[in-house]
What does this fold into?
Amino acid sequence: MDSLKIYSQHDINRLIIPRDGETKLGERVNVYESTEPVSVKGLAASRSKFVFLGIPEDIGVRANAGIAGAASAWRTSLVTFLNTQSNRFLTGEEILVLGHFEINEPEESTLKGLRAKVAEIDDLVYPVIEKIVAAGKIPVVIGGGHNNAYPMIKGTSLAYQKPIEVLNVDAHADLRELEGRHSGNGFSYALKENYLDAYNMYGLHQNYNNEAILSQIEQNPKLKAIFFDDILTGADFEDLVDGIKSTAGLEIDLDCIQNVLSSAETPSGFTVNDIRKLILTSAKKFSYLHISEGATRMLDGRVNRLTAKLIAYLVSDFVKAHADKV
It folds into this structure.
């Protein structure tokens, strides 16, 4: 059965490499203390504002005809993050490491079977996100495929009891047809089911969004996009985010960053420091952070363990940038 594995302090301690004279983040982070299943009350009892959660799966990527590998990002990223220094800039006490979802492979490996399984993952993920947000916490979620944007949006919307806005930093709009759930249509389903009120896209690649999607963006007033090609000639990020509400979620698909290992790895895109700067300098307070599509090992044999360190930088930047805002 698919389930949420809740981490104990013992689980965290096994991932830490201690060193005399230093304190690692893993030695300061908190875990879910209640003996009961995850609940709003149990989460609200923690003094930590940020709740880390992993969704190590790439079923949604494969359901979109992509290459498997995104399931590899969570554990290596968590180990890297937990072994980062605890110091005046980030102590670790701001963070509760909740755990990760354990997701079994579908019995049927056809596109139909994979897409049915993604719908099951949706139903597994969104209630946990809803409880985290309802408890007044900020989910920081490491995937996994970008299919998980849909349960992120749904859970947050249900907690706020209204549709939310999203800023998606991505090469792809992920507005494909409602053809069964996969990593390419999470935002399509969120819009259709009225969990998403306004969808802002930053960094889309003109070469990799089909004409039907471009027409949607042009015709639907809920959709607003700045293309990476236009950023190269001076388009301004602030033109996109001006007026975004504090309930907005922040989605970062790592295939928008050049040379980061993913199913849709690109030689042309944002630099790592572009994305770090975006997180650290944004005046907006986001209701969640979702990092998707990155991998440390792909099914086709490509390997890059630096993806884990990149993710550790991004999540620590997000916590630092939001600590004063919350």
